[in-house]
Structure formats: C-alpha cells, structure tokens
Amino acid sequence: xxxxxxxxxxxxxxxxxxxxxxxxxxxxxxxxxxxxxxxxxxxxxxxxxxxxxxxxxxxxxxxxxxxxxxxxxxxxxxxxxxxxxxxxxxxxxxxxxxxxxxxxxxxxxxxxxxxxxxxxxxxxxxxxxxxxxxxxxxxxxxxxxxxxxxxxxxxxxxxxxxxxxxxxxxxxxxxxxxxxxxxx
Length: 184
Known about the structure:
The protein is an alpha+beta fold and 184 residues long. The protein folds into 2 domains: 77 residues, Alpha-Beta Complex (Outer Surface Protein A, domain 3); 83 residues, Ribosomal protein L6 (Outer Surface Protein A, domain 3, Alpha-Beta Complex). It is built from 3 helices and 13 strands. It is elongated and about 60 Å long. It starts with a helix and ends in a 20-residue tail after the last strand. 22% of the residues are buried.
C-alpha cells in the first residue's frame, strides 16, 4: 500500500470538492480544476477530507499515491496557486508584457511573443530580467515555463539564455588560445 496514498487530503475553508464517478472537480478562490482518474481508484469525501481508498489490485499501488498527489495539487492550486520563476541572462535580452502575452527580446531578428493559455498569467519584474509563470494548474504552469525556457536555453560558455531562478548552469572553459603551441 502506498504511504503517500494513505494520507488524507485536507479541504480548507472556501474550497468545494465534487466527485462524479471518476471525475474530481475542485473549486476555490483561484479557480476551478477538474480531472478524471483511473476507474480502480475509490475517491471519497469524509469530514472535510478527501480519502483515496487503496485499490483491490496490489499492482496499482503506484496509481494510489499518484491519485492522492494529483488531488493534493488540485486543492493547493485553487487555494494558493503555483508559480515558476525564470531569469534572462544576456546583453539586450529582456521580457515585457503586452496585454496578457509575454514578449521576449532574445537576440533574434524579431521579438518572440508567448501567448498566455487559459489559467496562466505572466508577471514581469521591473528589471525586465526576471519573470514568472503563475496559475492554478501545476502541470500547465510547469509546461509553460519549460516551453518558454526552450525558446533560448542557457548556453554553457557565457550562460546567455533563459533559465529557472536558482538553476545552476554548468559552465565550460572555452578555447585555451595559442598558449604554448610553439607555432608562429
């Protein structure tokens, strides 16, 4: 039996959880999320807690923990929301907001516009080097942040590009030059 799956998910005040067969809908102050789970999972609301009963089949223990973790993320998303911060490194590289869309100047011949998908919001720092992707759906926030990072991933020589805040970039030394070769 899964240790993660055994723990109940507490439902805070102001959050409604509705279970319709295998579909769980969570409503809260930051929005509404719905997800369909595997039919073997038994999901029940008891005393302001969501309980995921262990499956009959022991080979489905991984689904037990996964289901509980996804429900926990849904509850956290509609109460607090999720945020992924990114940084831009490079001379002339910057980010700015135009309406709800993010416009990136990354050394290309043209600015790159990233459209905000439903439930996603961008926040740009006034330095235009730091920005974040925010939303209620953890998967959508992470996917959007990864998509933005893939536009110009950090290169290993000077570190130019987009990277997650706090991400450590492996740097390479570069060319050693013509020191000690004896060639003229």
